[in-house]
Amino acid sequence: MKAHLGVLLESALASVTAGRPLDVPPTPQVDATKDPRFGDFQTNLALMLAKPLGLPPRKVAEALVAALPPSDRVAKVDIAGPGFINFHLAPAAFQAVVPDILAAEARYGRDDSGGRGRIMVEFVSANPTGPMHVGHGRNAAYGDTVANLLEAAGWRVWREYYINDAGRQTDVLTVSVWLRYLQRCGVALAFPKRAYPADYIRVTADRLYDEGGADAFRVAGIDELPTEEVAAEGADDAEKNRVKLSQEAHIDRWITLGREGLGADYERIRHAALTDQLAAIRATLAAFSVRFDQWTSEADLVARGAVDKALKRLGEQGLTYTRDGAVWMKSEAFGDEKDRVLIKADGAATYYCNDLAYHVDKLDRDWPRLLDVWGADHHGYIARVRAAIEALTGRNDALDVQLIQFVTLSSGRMGKRSGNFV
Asked: Domain 2-94: which topology?
């Protein structure tokens, strides 16, 4: 319909200007109105012609309206404000579209403006340490809709879910399952405050118990762990923060004990826990028809050397340095607010280190445009990821990020450590 109205305006423009060359766009701009009181479409052509013609814009609008050819698709044309021309469509305008819809079928409304360009859309990517909740649902709905729109606009779209399965939180998940298993076996222990207490942990623990019995995952040294601190009632914020750090250190002791004492069985528990959580996430997404072309594991990315490769490339370009025992990237030189740690002093890679390798891996897989859908709390993370991409590829235009706001509950709070989910 915009094209049809554009043709009418071009005819009126030729009549009003009598063929005089004017500095105006060759095709008049037509836009849908935001308020139905002002019709269905409008144009500001009269305002653009006012100065070249030396006339008030409303006079130009009146001349254009008078020169418009008749059309059975337009019921009424009026002028608003300083000279906006508003078009009110006739029923024939809507009826004329029906044959096009029937002929195009599922292709109706699509175009090729994307030019078959390749773009990867990464969305949801919720940590596999617990069930999906309404916040993840918003991300899934938004990301899938954006991917659908890009496909409708002629893009070749690849939907990807990034599984964050290489960080400390997966160790917390693993230990949580292990401790619930030990409790099922009758071992008396206090469940750590910083572990995950929800029922989904017990489901995996019970499955491991049913498969392996009561003696599969026992280790020595449990009784030697110190008692976990608990903040006293009425403690101030400083004391609460100190106790929180102490509790984090406490669960780290459990992680160390599990890794060293269980050996390969620790990875067996980890695999079982992640498998159950990913199965639940996949089922939830499938329930409202959100699909992915690929699920990429952070742990696999590390195992196949993508992180080492990225670090080597940065080092060869002189973009890393060592300070206080840690390896830093010169990200400030690429627009970040400061340099960032890649490898901590204890030798562990930061989340940022693995994530920059993942984004370069996407580009290396021949997806030249990347679109990520993140929560609004990741706003400050955009510059550092773009800095990494530019440092490793020379491109500063590869990544677009869409931020979505959090879901606000009318009451209560969600949390994996509280076991509350919506």
From this structure: Gyrase A; domain 2 (3.30.1360)
